[in-house]
Amino acid sequence: MSTTRFPFSFLSSLLLLLSLLVLFNPVDAQQRNRNGRTRNGGNRNTQQSTPQQQAASVPQGISTATDGSTILDSTVQLNGVPLRFKISAPSSQFTTLTDVPGSSAEPNSTGELGVNVLLHGDGGQSFFDFPNQAVQGNQLGVALLAPSTNLLWGQRTGPAPGLDRADGAADALLVRDFVKDVLPQLVAFDASNVFFTGVSGGALLLSGFFMPVHLSEFAAEGNTNTGVLLMCGAMPPQVGGGGDSFPAANARVHYQSTTDELQLLQGSIPDAIRAFEELALAQGLSEAEVGRLQTVDNSPQGGHCEFDGQGFVSGIQLVADDFAAIMLEGGDGEVNGIGNVLTPVVGNEALRF
């Protein structure tokens, strides 16, 4: 990939926030109710523009993260599609190609921070909320926006497809290529310490298409400094020979759901749990080893992604705030308001909804 300069003008956090509130009102597509209204009261029949068009009206640029880090919001042309991204990191860690004020890193240089890459749910809400923006557990935050009409991962055109993600393989490759080829040009990070977070439809993309084929490229022999946090969504491998290349011994996986999960996910999440557990056992891991690396919790009393029992956005933020406790080595698994979520999958595959 050729080296490209990324010029950006400064946009204040206030302007970005106002733009989000006024111009964009995405909702996870699987949460629409029968009368055509979204959970936040918007009427889908009055929407004149597509979610992709609404997203395009939200300005890109540079702003400040909740922890004082710098957020870079821009778009790169990759694999024939425009891929919008956000990166949150200390300004000094951005490369000189970005023109971020205070940037000093050289392209393709190694930094001290790892990476947590987030894929939003159907509709794009979590991309704009950017719940993983603060540096946590020595991980800088990245979020990617699905390059599709309705902001669906694994479905470039058409309405929300449920579990049918016809473009899943192409989107999984897009995620892989961004992290491997584009991200090193923009920010210095530790390429041996890369994790992924999926929300709803993003979790389907990661479990069904990314984990079975591409996660092994981020795994290092002898440690577990890669992994995937699957929030309110998961399904068994859909590609890659059933997931034979899944790096079971070197990756953490956590499934986080609720007691009142969406009906179609009440079947697919347990199916995914069993599938990845079986892959690990087939690779020679003991049940104890599988239970340490693969964990699950659906104890929160709430609906889809409502981990705090109150709302979609606040629930996701709650779990994102404890990413390090859940996913990183030495984490105690304690999530504020939920308790310990690190229940081994072995013997707990059949979740109670």
From TrEMBL:
| Compositionally biased tracts (Low complexity) | 32-60
Query: Could you tell me the keywords of this UniProt record?
Result: Signal
Positions of region (Disordered): 32-66
Checking InterPro entries in the record gives: AB_hydrolase_fold (IPR029058)
- Its signal peptide is 1-29
* Name by which UniProt lists this protein: Cyclin-like f-box protein
The organism encoding this protein is Cladorrhinum samala
